[in-house]
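Quick log. Single chain, no ligands specified.
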Amino acid sequence: MVAIRGYDDSTDRGQVIELWRTVFGYEAAHNEPSLAISKKTATNDGMFFVASKEGRIVGTVMAGYDGHRGWLYAVAVHPDQRCSGLGRKLVRCAEEALTEVGCMKINLQLLVTNEATSAFYKSLGYSVEPRVSMGKILHANVPVNSVAVKRED
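-> predicted structure:
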């Protein structure tokens, strides 16, 4: 049986890093799992959840809320647990946490080429919105030694 609970840095970090590398294959320095975990746990907002099965982390979800919108991040399900309903449970867990703090709208981003994930979110009631997503990496906050960083200064 899979249990979803709050992330515990003292016991979960190594397994979450391994899961994210398996699921996401991060290559950009600002996505380095250990750095992302440290930044999230520093917020101490209680919106980082893990799913465990027989002592093994098999899923994660992080949520964020800025007082205006909520966001979903790092929804990850181990490949051997996919199509089990775990992703749905993780998203619902984050939605409940965001609802409790008064969030009225949740956003998320995914690659336009990730059709399977898009279909998953559509099945949960999310829709594609006519928006342009823009981003900027603040290199001053990205450790150079975490992963190769290409600077275009």
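The chain is about 35% helix and 20% strand.
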